[in-house]
Amino acid sequence: MRGSEAALGAAGCAVFVALGEAVPRLGLVDEDHFPPAGRIAGALGRELSDAAFWSALGDTLTGWALGLAIAVSAGVVAGVVISVVPYLREVTASTIEFLRPIPSVALIPLAVLLYGTELRSVLLLVGYAAFWQVLIQVLYGVRDVDPVAEETARSYGLGGWARVRHVLWPTALPYVMTGVRLAAAVALILAVTAELVIGAPGLGARIAVAQTSQAVPEMYALIVVTGVLGLLINVGARAVERRALAWHQSVRGEVAV
Prior knowledge:
- There is one protein chain.
- The chain is mainly α.
- It contains eleven helices and no strands.
- The termini are close together.
- Its main location: membrane.
- It comes from Streptomyces iakyrus.
- Keywords: Cell membrane, Membrane, Transmembrane, Transmembrane helix, Transport.
- Residues 57-241 form the ABC transmembrane type-1 domain.
């Protein structure tokens, strides 16, 4: 089943590349604005041979990984604390609903004022955007805990930490992994956006330079790299999710199919 899905995905990519080659060649769009796929591939080859490209890629992955790690850690801890401390969920509900819809890009002026074009600006934006993905999933996961299981744990004398470990965490973990997968994609988007707008070192800044210098094939080649990164991150996150939830019915059912 997975093999056929991969084959269909590869076929879809091949059709997309063929269209990318044919549309400019047929004059449907201006080649100066949208070069054929072959020229983009050539530009990508030149980028891959440039040491500055790999340095920019490392900067982007550093901002993504650190921001994601901060967001996941803070989101899990905050979600568990808010859920288990009496009345804290009710007290924080309105604040969460106020802060969550604020777009991270709206914080770009604040990030620039605080940290300029340093890595910390990227971490602020990435961490803020990814944090909510994790926090909300943790809150939903804890809410899904079976009250009977919770009361049974209490009747057996399990303390607060033991109940979190043996009752709350196994129930919330599938939600947590979903939040991590969503946060990983959001973190990459914000990392590249921050570099593109702020000028922090990374692929986004390199895309901006290519655009301003009219190096259009190189610009598209870098955009392709960000797309491939997103694909790899999604595949990796799903693999980690399946491994962490190998005991869960959803994954066991998926493997059985």
